[in-house]
Amino acid sequence: MAARTLIIVGGPTASGKTDAGIALAKHFATDVISADSRQFYQAMRIGTARPLEHELAGVKHHFLGQLQLEETWSAGRFAREAEPVLQELLAKHGIAVLVGGSGLYIDALVKGLDPLPASDPRLRERLQRRIDTGGLSIWRMRSNVSIPPQPRASMPATRTA
């Protein structure tokens, strides 16, 4: 059996992933699988750097702009739906290109996820109704965790640089 290769191009928004992925896909005559949790949504162009049709340079992209904002999507669902696409590309071309800034989605496809129970849509709706009627403060009031003022003042500031 011939070697099969998955090239992963990851990084932050607007770091050149799309151009690199397209160049690689063209070079190896294969497709791109998008693994960006926001670029899946058709209406989310602002802040996602999702490429326009002419920027795709004729390279087929899977999982790009195929969802409506109201649709629920998850890393697990992405992995389940992307796996057969990945296997098809590997069987056809021997190589595939995975591009995205969502490490969880990349890991879900490449490494898999721990088995978790399915989400309960009724619970989700009930919790959303609570937020809609009481705002987020209802969750703060229900929390048993609080940090007294004195220890909070002595905590070191978190640095992100």
User: Which term fits the overall shape?
Assistant: globular
Q: What's the order of the H and E elements?
A: EHEEHEHHHH
**How far is the first residue's CA from the last residue's CA?**
47 Å
**How many individual β-strands?**
4
Which blocks of ≥5 consecutive residues have pLDDT under 50?
A: none
Find the CATH topology of the largest domain.
Answer: Rossmann fold
> Main β-sheet: number of strands, strand sense, barrel status?
4 strands, parallel
The SS-based structural class is alpha/beta
Q: If classified by CATH, what would the architecture of the largest domain be?
A: 3-Layer(aba) Sandwich
| Strand residue percentage | 5-15%
Can you give keywords for this protein?
alpha/beta, 4 strands, Rossmann fold, 161 residues, 2 domains
Summarize, please:
This protein has 161 residues and is α/β, with parallel strands linked by helices. The protein contains 6 helices and 4 strands, in the order βαββαβαααα.
